[in-house]
Amino acid sequence: MIRKNRKSSGLTRIHDAVIHVFQRKALPYSYYTLQSNLRRLIRTDTGPIIYDFFKDQLLKKGMVILRESLKSLKGAALLDKLSETWDYFFKEILLTLQAILYPFQDCPPEDVTISLRQLILADFRDTVLLKINLDVEEALEMAPVVPEPIKQMVLVLQGINDGISLEHQLKLERIVVRAVYPYLGVRGLYESGDTEPTIEASTAANISAKETEASKILLNALVHGR
């Protein structure tokens, strides 16, 4: 069914526009045209399938485009390119996708529990950053100074509440603590930029949601106040 729908001019336009955004090309159609096409598609019986197509296929296809520009880089070159990629993604791609896909925010599928913005950010986390996590960790360990866009990136991504798996949460935590500290994470309190906590949590459950949220607020204040 989704293949038949992709043949429609409306879905084809949305597909082309989203890919153009990730390729840093100008939009081939106006926002009005794209939003109107999406609204019409949402009102049909295939509305929920359209959302899944964007989430499971189209969005990931775009994120792979971003990841391809990073995967062969190491050290300072990786941090420089990742900083530039994140900066463009956060300021341009994210906002443009939100504008194109605004009708999803008006009429979200019933089982969707996170916002469109969180969905896009979470996919950057999972499809881009966590696929090159070991290289990023190594680069941060060697870096004399952590670029500001990297600090912003990890602070934004660690704040997404989308039911991330513990495995992914721990991978992300190892990157976060290399970039910003002090940090209160699942494994405990990190104070020195090392991947081992200074004060270990006896269990993950010992760190309450309130303590974690307080840590995030403090961390934001420390980073942006420097």
TrEMBL record:
Q: Which GO terms describe its biological process?
A: TORC2 signaling
**UniProt GO cellular component terms:** TORC2 complex
Highest taxon above the source species: Eukaryota
Q: Which InterPro entries match?
A: Bit61/PRR5, Cullin_repeat-like_dom_sf
Q: Which family does it belong to?
A: Belongs to the PROTOR family.
What is this protein called in UniProt?
Answer: PRR5
